[in-house]
Amino acid sequence: LPTNPRTPVIMIGPGTGVAPFRGFIQERVALAERTIAKHPESGISDWGTIWLFYGCRGANEDFLYKEEWPKYAGVLGDKFQMHVAISREGPRKPDGSKIYVQDLLWEQREKIREALVEKKGYVYVCGDAKNMSKAVEAVLMRILGEMSGGSAAVEGQKELNMLKEKSRYLTDVWS
Questions:
Q1: pLDDT tens, 158-172?
Q2: Which of 16, 58, 76, 82 is deepest in the core (most CB within 10 A)?
């Protein structure tokens, strides 16, 4: 986790991939509580947003730490944005296919691009290496490429490689 809380953080962790992000958010919550206690007038107003893109099969089946997320949001306010894809119950794409974390990432593409390019944010991906991490990379390349007037294959790949080289795109994936 970046040491400067002004740095935006984008976390993508469907299923059990969310576990390390719970710790990241708990750390930010503890820091926020200390900061607000010391500076009640300004608090965390200048902090970067911390996004969590989470996916599960069912809201009552495998939504991990479901009761905790609202508590964290209560402390962090609009500095914590959680986007949830519930594949077996949730809304569908216009073609009837399921919505996954990479689709939610695309929906937030303008904010994601701003966080990464303009605000030098970090991306963390944890979970399935077979499908999810590849799909997330493809969407990030598309966001970084197309939003800057280029293509995913050229400009997007170049930007993603730069994030990796600067350790601003980190993964913990398995198959």
A1: 999 999 999 999 999
A2: 76
